[in-house]
Specification:
By secondary structure, the protein is an alpha+beta fold. It contains ten helices and eleven strands. It has helices at residues 57-67, 73-80, 84-107, 158-174, 186-193, 225-228, 259-271, 286-302, 313-317, 326-329, and strands spanning 17-23, 29-34, 42-43, 113-120, 136-142, 148-154, 178-182, 197-200, 209-212, 216-221, 237-238.
């Protein structure tokens, strides 16, 4: 598997030669390797996730697993008798691993993707009204495999939605058919439509019309006040932006929903301590919340079997051929 292949940290070559074995004090036998054209030697623990770790991988995994199943930060430090800075350093390593795995996922080309988009909020630093909270979290999740593509937090403003927009733009370049379903928030598509559009020249005079990119679908479901307000009503299901003329697939109205994203946030409030309501375990800063969301992203997509698909989301989507073990996750090189 290319993700687990050891490469030279200098030239990134995978053609290596074993040089000298050596024995560590607590982690057994290891081998020094080198490439012919690179003078320095390096160990197999050079730049992977386990580099610099003295604690056994099984202990680190127990702490990370507890953190992604609802245990708070202080509770984890007391239960496992580890210093807070130690647990913080482990979570930061998983946060950095998110960048490697996300780039690895974007290398693949997909025939079709159906994404659910939604947003939820939690407390950060202090209790404030929802519209003022900086703990809003935007989600983009593949409907079939339950693979999470975006899980970013911040204030519910333009910058937060631009993060999701950049992710969607990258996915639109890697797939031949991309469908996006949201819960009625028009700003999701408005920001994406600014960069994800084409100009259609149909031969008529005047400025060419802007449409969605070929093969890209936008659909929303108007609910609540939008569907029940007085006067001229919007249709319950609609595509607010004109689609490309060569986009011929018709989406069934029963498929226009964000139920999977809503179910995910319900589970997140049970398994993530900072998302629980009526408790004081909320994050003290947005950076701490984003760090835990990155850890949750890695565990959800590559380590934890989803109860509906009976597979790890990365395997169900086709990113991996099989489920990675915890030991293999710690062998992935960070750079």
């Amino acid at each position: 598997m290319e993700l687990l292949q050891i490469k030279c940290p200098t030239c990134r070559s995978a053609v290596l030669q074993s040089h000298t074995p050596y024995t560590t004090q607590h982690h057994g036998r290891r081998i020094l390797s080198k490439w012919t054209n690179c003078p320095p030697y390096f160990s197999e623990t050079k730049k992977p996730l386990r580099a610099g770790l003295k604690t056994p991988v099984s202990v680190i995994w127990q702490v990370v697993k507890a953190r992604t199943e609802g245990m708070g930060f202080n509770a984890a430090a007391r239960t496992f008798e580890k210093a807070k800075n130690t647990i913080l350093a482990w979570e930061r390593k998983f946060r950095d691993l998110h960048q490697v795995l996300f780039l690895y996922a974007l290398v693949h080309e997909f025939l079709a993707l159906v994404l659910d988009g939604d947003a939820a909020y939690t407390k950060v630093q202090k209790h404030v009204p929802p519209e003022q909270s900086s703990g809003w979290t935007i989600l983009l999740m593949d409907r079939a495999s339950r693979c999470i593509w975006a899980l970013d937090c911040g204030k519910k403003d333009r910058r937060l939605f631009q993060k999701a927009r950049k992710t969607l733009d990258k996915l639109a370049r890697q797939t031949h058919d991309l469908s996006i379903f949201t819960d009625g928030e028009r700003r999701y598509g408005n920001l994406l439509f600014e960069i994800c559009y084409e100009l259609v020249n149909n031969g008529t005079p005047g400025r060419p019309k802007k449409t969605c990119k070929r093969g890209v679908h936008f659909s929303i479901k108007n609910t609540g006040a939008q569907a029940h307000k007085k006067g001229r009503k919007r249709p319950k299901y609609q595509s607010p932006w004109q689609e490309h003329p060569e986009t011929a697939r018709i989406i069934a109205e029963t498929h226009i929903h964000a139920n999977h994203a809503e179910a995910f946030f319900s589970a997140l409030r049970r398994t993530c301590a900072t998302f629980r309501r009526k408790t004081s375990m909320y994050a003290k800063a947005t950076t701490g919340l984003q760090r835990l969301l990155r850890v949750y992203w890695v565990v959800h997509n590559f380590l934890r079997v989803h109860f509906t698909t009976r597979e790890v989301p990365a395997v169900a989507l086709g990113l991996l051929e099989r489920r990675l073990s915890v030991q293999e996750i710690f062998q992935i090189q960070m750079a």
